[in-house]
Amino acid sequence: MQHRDGYIIDVSYPLHFHKEMQPIWLCHTIQTLGCAVPDISKPYRYCELGCGPGLNLLVAAACNPAGQFTGIDFNKKHIASAQALAKTLNIENIRFIEASFDDFAANNSGKFDFIVSHGTWSWLPPKAQAGILQLIYQSLEPQGLVYLHYMCYPGAARLTALQKVLYEAAKITKGDSVQGIQNGMTLLRTLANKGAGLFVDNPEIQKELQALEKELPAYLAHEFLTDYWHPQHSADLHRIISQTGVSFIGSANGFENMDTLSIPGNLQPILKNLPGQALRETVKDMARNQHQRQDVFQSSPQTLDVEKHLDLMDKTVFKALPNMPAPGSLEFKTPIGIIPGPADLFSPLLTALKKGPQSFQALRQLAPFQAEPGLLLQALAMLMWADYAHPIRPEQQPTPAAANLQAWLNSQQLPLRLLPECGTASMTQTSQH
Questions:
Q1: Does the pTM exceed 0.70?
Q2: Which UniProt keywords apply (predicted)?
Q3: Which of 97-111, 193-207, 416-430 has the lowest mean pLDDT?
Q4: I need a labelling partner for 290 at 20 to 30 A (CA). Which of 177, 231, 267, 358 fits?
Q5: Pseudo-torsion of CA 82, 52, 96, 114, nearest 10°?
Q6: Is residue 2 part of a domain?
Q7: What's the rounded Cα separation, in Å, for the pair 101 and 146?
Q8: 188 pLDDT band (50/70/90 cuts)?
């Protein structure tokens, strides 16, 4: 293995796309929770810390011409390939900078409306985490949004023993990090097959190993071979981030913002009676056996009054995505089990969206949602979570670079379909889980 500041650099991070990081998704999700958000119909600035090869940022820039996008990564190969690809595809509203987070924070003088980071915090040394905190403190605009993905307890606890074996096996492997992972996975499978007590006493860890065996070795290398591998309790993470002056607003995963759906019903009364946000979030993590979070924080949050909130939601226009099913009842396969989507609720909504883009104002005139805007918000959030629908960009500037990027995605056989009118992308149906 080759490390820099404790993180592997000898294997490139696989190309992954996370819709929850995209500016329109973030703004809609936080506006749904009743907070004012950056106006992305006007020019704005977006920074991704730990951009890797740049796929998320390239999609964002190609599909959102109003934004200026900056990607930071200390892996020279990542930055060089991302810069070359952006130039080849003529994506002009993007820049990639090779730097550690602490160095970038120390030298940056610009301001950002969005600071996002996926798959970095829980794998970083303290000085890099300090760089993230410094950048948030000094560079986030008022009402600016921070997206932070991290591993959390209690769910991540089941990975600790597996991670230690993979890490120690890789350290004594002669070869790169992929070879190290392969050796470690072989050892874990042998231990499981031979009845090691860890797997006998904890059947769920057996399932976890089976899931890991389906992943790319390069992904597992980045996931498990850092010198700094530390899940956290969400309450502890929130206290750390609050030192920068931002406030926790909710999850970028809209499903997790709906306690009535994402928390088992028999536990919901307990949550209602718990004082204190830290305790409530901790109990939610326990109720879901949460192993990772996609938290959103905001600088100087402003709560919208009911009239203003409804007015902004009414102006939001939603579009059916290619994966949207025919009208009828739905089944949502969620982390806590299958949640039914009743036909009398979803059929009118699906029928309307299949006719073409629909505003929230128009959709709440449908029979199931008259005088029930909150119910419509939940239904739309579930459709977004399932990749069936998405808000469209508030401005519809041309996106010529999107066609270039889509052609490249196709040439790489990456199962990603750009949705420029929505400012995002969607996994193609063959890749849906």
A1: yes
A2: Methyltransferase, Transferase
A3: 416-430
A4: 177
A5: 130
A6: no
A7: 15
A8: very high
